[in-house]
Amino acid sequence: MQIRKHVLRFSITFLILIICLFTFLIKLILIQVFNSSHLTGIAEKQQKHLLEIEAVRGSIYDRNMHPLAFNVSVHSLFVNPKAMTKENKLRVENELSTLLNMEPSFIKERLSRDKYFVWLKRKMPSEIVEKIKALKINGLKFRKESKRYYPNGSLGAHIIGFAGTDNDGLEGLELYYNKELKGKPGQVRILRDAKQRELMIESSFVPPLEGFHLVLTIDETIQYIAEKALESMFLKHKAKSGSVIVMDVKTGEILALANLPTYDLGDVEKSSPESRTNRAISYLYEPGSVFKIVTAAAALEEEKFDEKDIIFCENGKYKVSRNILTDHTPHGKLTFSEVFEVSSNIGVVKIAQELGSSIIYKYASRFRFGKMTGIGLRGEVAGWLKKPSIWSKTTIGAIPIGYEVTVTPLQLICALSSIANDGVFMKPFVVKYIKDNQDQIIQSFNPQVLDRVISVDTARRIKKILVQVVEKGTAKRAKIKGIKVAGKTGTARKVIDGKYAQGKYYATFMGFAPADDPRIAAIAVMDEPHPSYFGGTVSAPVVKEVLENSLKYLGSLE
Amino acid sequence: MRLAKLIKFMCIITALALIYIHIQMQITDFAYQGIKKDGRIKELIEENGNISYAVSTLKSANYLGLKMFNEDSDMQYIDQDNIVQISTSVGLDDAKIAVKKAGFNKMPNQLLSLLSFGSQAEAKQR
């Protein structure tokens, strides 16, 4: 009896154990087999995290590898409003508003959002970050991002442009070459522990493709020279705006390009659209007498005139259809050369009348007026050059002296450079090459001949005339001691609301040096200088300073 | 025999499993150490970036121009007129001949150089 009782108890206990074991086994099978994928998904979602690795944006250098734009790692501040306590939120509102330079109401709004992640301030300087960390407020977290820095401030602003908060180019070369500079972000799948710390146990890793670097044709020193010269005259003559371009005549490389007003690349929020306009390539104006080089080139190339031919300049008044054309200083008989030296409107128009509209148009087209140069910057405009079929009877008295035609400063300097380069028109460009982190050249931009505009002989004859413009003519203020300068002045009335405005002018001078073996050309255009407004008075000194100092600088490099 | 084999097999499996778990824990441990090192590397990269920016700003044409070419400064761009060439009285070839005559090109006497109180350069030339 006793033994049976024992056996019975043993059997019941054993049975209970077997049932428990069986239950655990079924539960295990349910978890491991039937719910496996669902539970694994939840665990993966909690533990694994796809982290994007930001690609470092490529840098921009000048032709001598001086950095003009590059990225630096900075901290950005974010919060998790859902996980933050009320006390901490209040502390953030009160203590951070001054540090972050934000209104407390703005911070309050951000903290009240029903989200796990909200930016408070992005890309802060390290001093501010240290101060915030010292406050030891729970719930504030930092994330590393990269910020674009421009060590030269406003130097070359219109060429370089700037990148926005998300490292996307928004202006200038930063925009034009955004795809090359930006690179491609990478990815890594990481583990997060219970404290949400990220463990770099990579189960999959796609490395980022770092951005490529741009090496420009711009010379940082010549750019500085150009900007200082422009600023000095701009302030002296109280101009509304101004532009300077410096170009290598033999290669077409742009060594400097400056505009005023300008803006600080490190403080773009304070800039206006007007200050960001690249007037050198996107501002059209009637150039005035600088355009006379077209007529001069046409006349000599077509062999219709010689330098010693005499032209009667009507003593300062000449009727062209129903318009009366005047000269600033009345002249009687002038030689062909003298017509351009003293910039006689009547003399040039008479030469143009002899040549005819189709020839004037042909050479203006050859000099690529009315066409884009293809410099490789956004915002370039082609300007306007009327075809002879739509010329009026007065147009022959306008276009040859730089009216009824609109151009950009870039088109003018390219035309002049072709004369300096013995008649060969070079394509202007601002990027020399693109390279990667290993200094491998990805893409190279070489000097490109666009056209032979005029013969070598014609070019040299025009050079001699342009030297006389500086030596004896309207551009004496462009003379440089010891160096022959060739150039042309222009003083053009300004159109406002469809009419020529009283007392408002564009003052232009463009020149190259040394005239015997031209190396660089420069143009300066001032909008509404006053009280002086002549190209020879306002802009010639700018070009003189730019050419003189640039040649000294380039000479010191050799 | 079968039981013995089973126990042996289970022991091997258990040992392998324990080794595997140990390795996984090591990997996790290295990952935690890596967080600290990664943080330090990022700090150094950030510091490097800030210093690079400071150096680039100081070297920039804008800054240098501001310091060197302000209104009060007498500095100006170098000109060929500012370079003065000075010719020496003794030509370079003559100098070489003079050195030879003085015997400086002779092989130094090793014993003498040991006894010399002159500097190493002088001793070699004697």
Counting helices, strands and paired strands, the structural category of chain A is alpha+beta
Number of helices of chain B: 5
CATH architecture of the largest domain in chain A: 3-Layer(aba) Sandwich
What do the pLDDT scores of chain A average to?
92
With helices defined by DSSP (H or I, 4 residues minimum), what is the helix count of chain A? 18
Please outline the major beta sheet of chain A: 7 strands, mixed
Evaluate the radius of gyration of chain A.
35 Å
Helix content of chain A: 25-40%
Shape of chain B: rod-shaped
Question: Any idea what the shape of chain A is?
Answer: elongated
In CATH, what is the class of the largest domain in chain A?
Answer: Alpha Beta
Instruction: Give the total of domains of chain B.
Output: 2
CATH structural fold name of the largest domain in chain A = Beta-lactamase
Our measurement of the CA-to-CA distance between the termini of chain B, rounded to an integer number of angstroms, reads 93 Å
Parts with pLDDT < 50 across at least 5 consecutive residues of chain B: 111-126
Strand percentage of chain A lies at 25-35%
What can you see in these coordinates?
The complex is a heterodimer of chains A (558) and B (126). Chain A has 558 residues and is α+β, with helices and mostly antiparallel strands. Chain A folds into two domains: 52-216, Alpha-Beta Complex (Penicillin-binding protein 2a (Domain 2)), CATH 3.90.1310.10; 220-265 and 278-432 and 446-557, Beta-lactamase (3-Layer(aba) Sandwich). Chain A is elongated, with a radius of gyration of 35 Å. Chain A starts with a helix and ends with a helix. Chain B has two domains: 2-68; 87-125, no CATH class. Helix content of chain B is 70%, strand content 0%. Chain B has five helices and no strands. The radius of gyration of chain B is 37 Å and the shape is rod-shaped. The model of chain B is unreliable at 111-126 (pLDDT under 50). Chain A binds chain B through residues 66-67, 70-74, 126, 144, 149, 151-155, 191, 197-201, 220-221, 223-224, 228, 482, 549, 552-553, 555-556, and chain B through 27-28, 31-32, 34-35, 38, 42, 45-46, 49-50, 52-53, 56-57, 59-63, 65, 69, 77-81.
